[in-house]
Amino acid sequence: MSKFSLLDCTLRDGGYITSWNFSDSAIRDMIASLSEAHIDYIECGYLNSLECKQDSTIFQNINKIIGFLPEARNSFFLAMADVAQFKPEDITPFDGRSIDGIRVVFYKHQIDEALEFAGSVKENGYKLFMQPMVTIDYSLNEYAALINRIAELNPYCISLVDSFGYMTQDDFRRYYNVVDNLLNLDINVGFHSHENMQLAFAVAQDVLNYNTARRVIIDASLYGIGRGAGNLCTETIANYYNSLLGFKYNIQILMRLINDYIMPVRKTKTWGFTPYLFLTGLYKCHPNFACYLLENHDVSVSDFEKFLLMIPYEMRTKCKKPYVEELYQRFII
Amino acid sequence: MSKFSLLDCTLRDGGYITSWNFSDSAIRDMIASLSEAHIDYIECGYLNSLECKQDSTIFQNINKIIGFLPEARNSFFLAMADVAQFKPEDITPFDGRSIDGIRVVFYKHQIDEALEFAGSVKENGYKLFMQPMVTIDYSLNEYAALINRIAELNPYCISLVDSFGYMTQDDFRRYYNVVDNLLNLDINVGFHSHENMQLAFAVAQDVLNYNTARRVIIDASLYGIGRGAGNLCTETIANYYNSLLGFKYNIQILMRLINDYIMPVRKTKTWGFTPYLFLTGLYKCHPNFACYLLENHDVSVSDFEKFLLMIPYEMRTKCKKPYVEELYQRFII
């Protein structure tokens, strides 16, 4: 595998658009085909101890994923676990038949829980991916402290996560340098970005200029499907790497998957850059302020900007549906 | 004015979406407000000797634009002239009351005509912007020859034009270097890009790393409105320059213009990145193969890819409606 690699998160982040409803045959075909297209890492869905559904990329346990994986293991198969939703005791030992790794996602207030959970992931033999959400919410010192704690677990990868879609190339480089200075070169760095300010692709291109031997793993999804403004598109970054680095990602297969599984979703659902999501990025607010509000109200761009400006600074990164509604009722008085 | 500057082409390139129908009051407000937002160059519309309409950004003559310009001339006001649509004898002398400059747009087979037209632009006292469409269609040698011919006219600006939306940072740099080696430093370079492969913003960001004192002028439009996959967004690049360079583009004003004039258009019209337009970029085809075909036919992404692949190589950059239809009829047999 090259120093530059791609991780497709369609089945997981795209799930925010489909409520994780993908038919069993679609899940199977997408995983096998992404692998056939030489995508290096494939995120198959979420682990969630409490949910048990058919035709879904929410998996109640690790063994449930076995039936969806192709025989040929040319890619690494992953699932995401939110520390609040999957119990560490539900992690069954790695035996080579299910996923290869677990992406542990957590907020800043969940660090202790996340590290404990991560310990179980390692003990059970999985590749450990650490995904601290809203990375930019950590000061560089706080981030260094986090990295040092994570380092003790010897993870496979730590990701820079731009949950709100406003990190520039410069921002990524600053956090990357912390990792690069503190971690062994065999620990990879991931990039998970969102398109609120259309910055994702430029960051992914800039990564090629990084002066390091460390492997970077770029997250992307087919046609950018994902919550809010969506993700970097797998097809655009894969083709860019093909053109610039001579890689052999199979774009035809990616387009066939878009045709078969993403375009039908696009008929009724929407995602991607809008002026509303740009404004959430501009004012460093959680994008759900736009998503939740526009679900129930017809709000103009100008009114939405005024609405964002009345959110107390400390509440801008916290977004619960009832709070958005309560705030809007105050706004329209 | 800084080394890095922005040109808003909403009223001209956005016209492909609105058939250039903007109300007179909208045109007036947009020009004045973009100028108030400190946008450096504002393209007011097209010059076209044959058309005469109200509530339109197609202007039959240069003096017609006077009534739309604000008194304070804090920005440069421009119009585009297609050498096939505006007669050089219709260029009236510059007197400081109408536009400051004319953007001369031409295809490779129109170079002689364009240079003659450009001579009239200069003779009449306007800033001359040269816009050779599909810049990548010129070999670097051909491009150098073109630049040398243009140099004799001492233009204000020459633009690198990615009409089909597939030029990468590296491509732009290669063509830029030709200009940079051949032209006096006081001649500016423009960048006009499209979003077929989502490359525009990365190119505009990379420009900040260019090792030159030459001024660059980046084209953009509000919410990216423009034909096919649209343009770089004025609001995203303006905010990026504000963040990185401490510029003072007024983003609030840009958002108000999007609210008042672009969102109403968006209710019935669409533009921006799609898998279809990605495919036109991938196979280096004119994006109108997607636009024309999808106007009249419901074609899947997979069928569209097969359709593009049957276009003879030499016809991929040439796209007329009847040809697209004829080809499609052959395709579906």
Q: How are helices and strands ordered from N to C of chain A?
A: EHHHEEEEHEHEHEHEHHHHHH
- Model regions low in confidence, pLDDT < 50 over at least 5 residues of chain A: none
Shape of chain A: globular
What does the oligomeric state look like here? homodimer
Our estimate of the beta-strand percent of chain A is 5-15%
What is the CATH class name of the largest domain in chain A? Alpha Beta
| Strand arrangement in the largest pleated sheet of chain A | 1-2-4-5-6-7-8-9
Work out the count of structural domains of chain A.
Answer: 2
By secondary-structure content and strand pairing, the structural class of chain A works out as alpha/beta
State the distance separating the first and last CA atoms of chain A.
Answer: 58 Å
**Which CATH architecture of the largest domain in chain A?**
Alpha-Beta Barrel
- Gyration radius over CA of chain A: 19 Å
Q: Give the tally of β-strands of chain A.
A: 9
CATH topology annotation of the largest domain in chain A: TIM Barrel
Helix content of chain A: 25-40%
Largest interface, C-beta closer than 8 angstroms, per-chain residues = A-B, 37 and 37 residues
Relevant CATH superfamily of the largest domain in chain A:
Aldolase class I
Major pleated sheet of chain A: 8 strands, parallel, barrel
User: What is the count of helical runs of chain A?
Assistant: 13
Describe the protein:
Chain A has 333 residues and is α/β, with parallel strands linked by helices. The first copy, chain A, folds into 2 domains: 4-266, TIM Barrel (Alpha-Beta Barrel), CATH 3.20.20.70; 275-332. In chain A, 40% of the residues lie in helices and 14% in strands. Chain A contains 13 helices and 9 strands. Chain A has helices at residues 10-13, 15-18, 24-36, 111-123, 140-151, 169-182, 200-206, 234-245, 251-266, 275-282, 288-296, 301-309, 321-332; strands at residues 4-8, 41-47, 58-59, 76-82, 101-106, 127-132, 157-161, 188-192, 216-220. Chain A has an 8-stranded parallel β-barrel, surrounded by 4 helices. In chain A, α3 packs antiparallel against α9 and α5 packs across α6 (169-182). The radius of gyration of chain A is 19 Å and the shape is globular. Chain A starts with a strand and ends with a helix. The model of chain A has no long low-confidence stretch (mean pLDDT 96). The A-B interface holds A 168-170, 197-199, 201-202, 205-206, 223, 233, 235-236, 239-240, 243-244, 251-252, 255-256, 258-260, 262-263, 272-273, 275, 278-279, 282, 300-302, 305 and B 168-170, 197-199, 201-202, 205-206, 223, 233, 235-236, 239-240, 243-244, 251-252, 255-256, 258-260, 262-263, 272-273, 275, 278-279, 282, 300-302, 305.
